[in-house]
Fold this protein.
Amino acid sequence: MAITYVLIFVLLFHIILFRKMIFRWNTISIFFIATCIFSIIGILMFPFMRMYAGRTFWTFQLELITDADVVKTQLLAVGGLMLVLYSYVFGMLLMYKRVECIDHFRIKTPIKNNLSNVNFYFMLIGIFGFLFIYLLIKRDVLLTGLFDGLIGRQPVALLESRRGITSNYLYVVITYNLLPFLTIVALFLMMKKKTLMSRLLFIGLFLVSFLLILLLFQKRPLILFLLSLTVAAFVFKKYINIKEKRIRTKKEKRKARRRTILVLASLFSILLLLYYSATTYRFDNIFEGLFTLTEIVLTRVFGRLAIPAFCYVHYFPAVEDHYALTNIGMFSKIFGYELYPDSKVLFNHFTRNKKEGSLAINSIIDFYGAFGYYGFFTGNFILGLLLSALDAFLNRLEKNNINIIFIIFCFVFAYYLSQASLARSLLGYGFFFFMVAWMFLQKNFKIKMRP
């Protein structure tokens, strides 16, 4: 366990050392904090809670994970995060000749409107036309998931409905990426214009987005959508019309803290309800139910990505060779090779039952699983440079409404890097489509930069 204590010290030391850069509104901050919460904490806690993890994740053969696997995973996870961090710093030094602590929400002038209304409504009409036809065709699958799965609390029905409803890639792209983007555009219009039509537009888009994401029967996209809306509302409220700068009173600070706590509590409550609907647990009283559901949420938050990290490090290359780019579906279709479903292969190797499933890992561990040590060092170094270049580019953008919304969804991209591989974050989880929506909605297709 000595190595675990050393790595905890290293992590805390770097958080303190780079606190001015980490605790700002930028992509490295989102990636670093999300990786720590959803992966690193669970990986470092594992030696202290191994018996508890074995009982909690009893469907997995965690006894296959050796002490050497644990140490190796911890070194890769923390070392990879440090490599991304120092690569980011190196990128900043190259571009700014100093370690620039970028804050994308440090806005000094009122937010301008650079939205192309024609393109916005054209996109809305096209999307709603497709959704109407698609949902009409898939109505039986949708209703089965809603009533039997979500309301009837039948996990098998949820899984089957999810597969059926997400079988069309365009539908997934619209629901995951485009509708949330357009909803936040509508939020800006409502807060700027304050007219009845703008309010109705936002409420309508919000309800459609909320329901369609809910009917994907996945928790993470819904929470991300609500978080993105909350951040956007905070920025728009503060900077649509900047008032004379003044020091906030203690009462205003307490009110802001209470609002933050309320938002976080609401999101946690939604998570509890979603986990309750996705399980078959029966509780004798409400306190037992709350305790059990809270335990489920916390173990999933800290263990969902940590446990698979040990599995990947154990499996590659001891059982099979590193998979390189063979797990990317688009490449397999273009170049005609057989797709290697790494997440499903690992799940089948470690599971005790015959149910289908998959395991998820972050981009740091994926570089090792795909390419071994050389790919691990090269990939994470490139990832740090990519985030530094992205932050530098976003910092050059004029702070208008469409650019700010794009910045928020770049944060979503940075978050997904802590949940999935770089390739899946760029394509499957939507960074490419965020860019398409951002460029399409610019007035006269002109991206405005700061002077």
